């Protein structure tokens, strides 16, 4: 029998599935629940235990990890008679790794405390590749003691793990992350179109650019997407649209001006409106191509 804490995992999407599998590889007993049967089958094949409901998944768990798309989904799985707060045992620790509004995280921590349940917000950056390779950057909000308790679990999932402040701080830092990533992808996309229209060898150009000050993790991760026009979703435009709404709203609340971020948020929204919401966020290249008169 493992002396490691028992883990319940709620949400087994593009990120959640490989992350839960990394916990299993690290020796954790993981019981999972999601709405898609194929994802449950994948968890079982990896050595996890499949639950028939949230209540069943969390009832004996020491740590409950949640990884769902947005605030409404976090609220749906957390609250109500079938939710986490009504069915997790007193003293359990919820590690919410979803990307949601800071206020949702603050409210969840407050409501959980009334049930004797602790919460940290721990959104991630690194995309599907980072999830598979267990090299995610994890930004955390919550109490120091809860962070310390969760850290061994988080160390099975990522490499850069930082407590950023009280509840909601992890989400605030994640919002800033998504702002930087979106602006970076947009700049890369514009450079790609400029280079191609100029007749330059695109692969050679991106290689040399990535070796200098213009280099970035975004360019490293997304270079092949640009070269091959491969927009299979690692992180969908739909989700980045949601995140840009979070950061622009949060910035407005604190009085921060995001002039470039606001423009990129609109470009993400326009791409989604044109039916590209299910594509990877590197598909911002398609928006630049359309603006440049190209057929896509």
Automatic annotation (TrEMBL):
Record-level Gene Ontology MF annotations: 2-hydroxy-3-oxopropionate reductase activity; NAD binding; NADP binding
Gene Ontology process terms (BP): glyoxylate metabolic process
6-phosphogluconate dehydrogenase NADP-binding domain segment(s): 6-165
Swiss-Prot/TrEMBL keywords: NAD, Oxidoreductase
Active site: 174
InterPro entries documented for this protein: 6-PGluconate_DH-like_C_sf, 6PGD_dom2, 6PGDH_NADP-bd, HIBADH-like_NADP-bd, HIBADH-related, NAD(P)-bd_dom_sf, Tartro_sem_red
Residue ranges annotated for the 3-hydroxyisobutyrate dehydrogenase-like NAD-binding domain, each copy included: 168-287
Classification via Pfam families: NAD_binding_11, NAD_binding_2
Superkingdom assignment: Bacteria
E.C. no: 1.1.1.60
Family: Belongs to the HIBADH-related family.
PANTHER family recorded: 3-HYDROXYISOBUTYRATE DEHYDROGENASE-LIKE 1, MITOCHONDRIAL-RELATED (PTHR43060:SF15)
Name this polypeptide is given: 2-hydroxy-3-oxopropionate reductase
